[in-house]
Design goal:
Chain A: It comes from Candidatus Sediminicultor quintus. Chain A: GO terms for molecular function: cobalamin binding; methylmalonyl-CoA mutase activity. Chain A: Keywords: Isomerase. The structure holds 2 protein chains of 2 kinds. Chain A is an alpha/beta fold. Chain A has 2 domains: 55 residues, no CATH class; 375 residues, TIM Barrel (Alpha-Beta Barrel). Helices cover 50% and strands 7% of the residues of chain A. In chain A, 49% of the residues are buried. By secondary structure, chain B is of the alpha/beta class. Chain B has one domain: Cobalamin-binding domain (Rossmann fold, 3-Layer(aba) Sandwich), CATH 3.40.50. The longest helix of chain B is centred in the middle third of the chain and has 14 residues. Classes of the chains: A alpha/beta, B alpha/beta. Chains A and B meet through α4, α7 and α18 of A and α1 and α3 of B.
Chain lengths: 559, 131
């Protein structure tokens, strides 16, 4: 971006500045630390100049927003056209209670829904399963059958909202329920907007709500790709998630690397079953974390976007512009929330949300201040949503596209993250791909090492966490935390019993039998699961059928 | 007892997959010279107690984030009692609201370590309890 002569001069002047000016300052006034590092532990230089970007090519590496390689954003006008979707992940207790919370959030100006399911639902158990004891309705809403789903979206017109569902192993079942609810509202699947997480690889790596082994899991995922290509053109068929990888302790570079490596694996799988890359790739979406190191995070989002565009173009030969675009949702980093002086979390979330916006996110969830202690209370959720609204309407960062571009530091970091992430992807390729790398424990160990280092840095006070290892106070116990109604489990089991008495059990049995038969073939299971769901077969019943055919995944842990 | 390593079982009861804390604590204890066995995810109280017996551990560390601790922790304690191995020191960690702690201590969980805990405090606690 600078001509040779100018670059030479800058280099020379920089050297002079270091030798004279900086040196003199350091003689009287040393720096705070010997080594400065990013939130992910990468060394940070004192000053970034054009020298760091020597040889870089604006048109090739940055280009313009909405143009390959999309470093500066996927849309030409970004937030000048429309703000990101403000989407708070929510759900707890019964479908009825969660429905109330959704309506509250929509009333407060939220623009999209994001459904949190409880753990039994995520692992394909009904509320009355022995493994569900104590877990029903705790970290999300309990869904046993279509009946619960009808209550969950009661009074919410599904053609007017976009809905994101955090569901993975049983994604086919919950997507089928969503389609069935819409149908009852008189809305056809092609009108539905939203996202299903449907990303099982990161469940093996970091999040833990897997059910089936990799091969049948990949099949279910590609079944959704295929079904949606035909029936739900507006639906994001997967949300390839780095969020949980980062929460498990990875660095920013590892987050990009492992997420995109997962993405490559899904694209490969879909191509293998005969789908054309440009038919399904436009509906792939991503999900990233926004951590505390503002500038490293902004660079991370930009690097991810550029690297994905290159991968899709060069590795998979995608031609459709939409196949090349990495569109993503962001959530602020839960792992940075402190139980100590919890109100400080509002500030952390603000910085993280700002990173996501400066990084060009398509939708955003801001965490609530009390989430290191419990599920968020209503007023905490409101502050979290207001944080996004302040950024959108008051901060001014939305008025121009990719405002940090051209910063020597930002561009250098963007280059570095891309380069290092690509190195990881090449290592994973050499191991035989993500599934092999998971089986060998490679990815998990890399993350664990980073997590352990992070903890050690905090304990050795190399990393300061305000209120935790510095600036501590004695504080009383926090007030006003949300408590999930302990009756949820009992209520849910009663309802389930009632449902099983009321529904026509013959039809349920027939549909489950057909599903079992089809599961043993290569058929797309979505239509069969839809039949099961509509006859009010429960989530547990459907997953049990699939368990009996596919078997269950067993993790192997290396410490 | 001289020279005998303290044996610790780190266990994840319940369904949640948040094992960052469990794994970090497991490694910190191992680096502090203890023998550590980690169960992996989704362990029932029965499985945890069975592993504790088989591995002849001195300490069980229960890690949970889902909110099911009020059900699962007491169940583990009950099973320890049934098997007459109440001498095992049981500690817990995770997102556990302060108001739940007295109840958990009453059933015999000796220490509860919530977010922000320094692993050295856990190590010290275990060394003091296992004599």
């Amino acid at each position: 971006m600078f001509d040779k002569e100018e670059m030479k001069k800058i280099k020379q002047l920089k050297k002079e500045w270091e030798n004279n000016v900086v040196q003199k300052t350091l003689e009287h006034f040393s720096e705070r630390k010997d080594k400065f590092v990013t939130g992910s532990g990468k060394e940070v230089e004192r000053l970034y100049t054009p020298v760091n970007l020597e040889g870089s090519d604006y048109n090739k590496e940055l280009n313009f927003p909405g143009q390959y390689p999309y470093t500066r954003g996927v849309q030409p006008t970004m937030y000048r056209g429309r703000f990101w979707t403000m989407r708070q992940y929510a759900g707890f207790g019964t479908a009825e209670e969660s429905n109330k919370r959704y309506k509250y959030l929509l009333d407060q100006g939220q623009t999209g829904l994001s459904v949190a399911f409880d753990l039994p639902t995520q692992i394909g158990y009904d509320s009355d399963h022995t493994m569900s004891l104590g877990e029903v309705g705790k970290v999300g809403v309990a869904i046993d059958s279509l009946k619960d789903m009808e209550i969950l979206f009661n009074g919410i017109p599904l053609d007017k909202v976009s809905t994101s569902m955090t569901i993975n192993a049983p994604a086919t079942v919950l997507l089928a329920m969503y389609v069935a609810v819409a149908e009852k509202q008189g809305i056809s699947p092609d009108k539905l907007n939203g996202t299903i997480q449907n990303d099982v690889l990161k469940e093996y790596i970091a999040r833990g709500t897997y059910i089936f082994p990799p091969a049948p899991s990949m099949r279910l995922i590609t079944n959704i790709f295929e079904y949606c290509f035909k029936e739900m053109p507006l639906w994001n068929t997967i949300s390839i998630s780095g969020y949980h990888i980062r929460e498990a302790g990875s660095t920013a570079i590892q987050e990009v690397a492992f997420t995109l490596a997962d993405g490559i694996t899904y694209v490969d799988a879909a191509i293998k079953i005969g789908l054309k890359v440009d038919d399904f790739a436009p509906r792939l979406s991503f999900f990233f974390n926004a951590h505390n190191d503002l500038l490293e995070e902004v660079a991370k989002f930009r690097a991810a976007r550029r690297l994905w565009a290159k991968i899709m173009k060069e590795r998979f030969g995608a031609k459709n512009k939409k196949s090349l675009m990495l569109r993503f949702h962001t959530q602020t980093a839960g792992c940075t929330l402190t139980a100590q002086q919890a109100d400080n979390n509002i500030v952390r979330v603000t910085i993280q949300a700002l990173a996501a916006v400066l990084g060009g996110t398509q939708s955003l969830h801001t965490n609530s201040r009390d989430e290191a202690l419990a599920l968020p209370a209503e007023d905490s959720v409101r502050i979290a949503l207001r944080t996004q609204q302040v950024l959108a309407y008051e901060s001014g960062v939305t008025e121009t596209v990719d405002p940090l571009a051209g910063s020597y530091y930002i561009e250098t970091l963007t280059n570095k993250i891309e380069e290092k992430a690509l190195e990881y992807i090449e290592r994973i390729d050499k191991l035989g791909g993500v599934t092999q790398a998971i089986e060998k424990g490679f990815i998990q160990q890399e993350i664990q090492n980073s997590a352990y280092q992070y903890q050690k840095d905090i304990e050795e006070r190399k990393r300061i966490v305000v209120g935790v290892n510095k600036f501590k106070i004695n504080e009383g116990s926090p007030k006003g935390l949300l408590k999930v109604n302990p009756e949820v489990g009992r209520k849910q089991i009663e309802e389930l019993k009632k449902l099983k008495e009321e529904r026509g059990s013959y039809k349920v049995k027939e549909n489950l039998k057909s599903l079992e038969k089809a599961a043993k073939t290569d058929a797309n299971l979505m239509p069969l699961i839809l039949d099961c769901v509509k006859s009010y077969a429960t989530l547990g019943e459907i997953c049990d059928v699939l368990r009996s055919v596919f078997g269950e995944y067993k993790e192997s842990v290396q410490l | 007892m001289e020279g005998k390593k303290i044996r610790v079982l780190i266990a994840k009861p319940g369904l949640d997959g948040h094992d960052r804390g469990a794994k970090v604590v497991a490694r910190a204890l191992r680096d502090a010279g203890m023998e550590v066995i980690y169960t992996g995810l989704r362990q029932t109280p029965e499985q945890i107690v069975e592993t504790a017996i088989q591995e002849d551990v001195d300490v069980i560390g229960l890690s949970i984030l889902s909110g099911a601790h009020t059900h699962l922790f007491p169940k583990v304690m009950e099973l320890l009692k049934e098997n007459n191995i109440e001498d095992i020191v049981v500690i817990g960690g995770g997102v556990i609201p302060e108001e739940d702690i007295p109840e958990l201590k009453k059933v015999g969980i000796e220490g509860i370590f919530t977010p922000g805990t320094d692993t050295h405090d856990i190590i010290k606690f275990i060394r003091e309890k296992v004599k």
